[in-house]
Amino acid sequence: MVSCEKIIPSSPKEDEILDGPVEGLSYEQLRRFALGDAAFNNEIFTPENGLGPGFVATSCGSCHAGDGKGHPFTTLVRFGQTDETGNKFLEQGGPQLQNRAIPGYKPEQIPAGATFSKFTPPANTGLGFLELVADADILAMADPQDLDNDGISGIPNYAVLPSYVQTLNNAIPLKGKYIHRFGKKAAAYNLLHQTVNAYN
Ligand code: HEC
User: I need a labelling partner for 97 at 20 to 30 A (CA). Which of 31, 68, 77, 106 fits?
Assistant: First the structure.
């Protein structure tokens, strides 16, 4: 027993598991958390509730299991964008490959000549409260030329907001564009934006 305990780590304590609500929520906030948690983990998309014709997965939790990270079998593929001039394959299904389809339809394939990348799902536990980090703090940490020589060249990603997204407090826009936060390339402005893209 003793030697087994050395090799096999014990399971985490309840308050160390990250898929639950944060502390101190009101009853109404807990209710919203429960609804979102169920939609994320339990809801299965079907043609009856809007899946298809092309699709990638039938639930959020199938990629972000336990609200956590994915693995090599839950990657998604985006194609057609090589630089800031935009995606030249939007008419052919870009940017995201819908590699599965409901019966009677063909899944998409990466068009000839398109570059592509695979993305592994990140954790969804919200440890950084990213939506609450002020633009000023992001700008203060930006280091595009890596002048401090730590090997990290953080570059804020400014982009145009979709019409349904409201700007965050104290936003510092540049030429009509706003600093985005979520996703591997900070391509989504807030959680609503990221979630709309994910459902779509
Ligand atoms: C096929 C796998 C897959 C499915 C299904 C999926 N995601 Fe993701 N998710 C990803 C990947 C990959 C990323 C990071 C890539 C990106 O958007 O830049 C991501 C990123 C996110 C992020 C941003 C996390 C961060 O810290 O920036 C959120 C939030 C999220 N997903 C929510 C959802 C929701 C809600 C659903 C269901 C509607 C969903 N995801 C379904 C793969 C998936």
Answer: 68
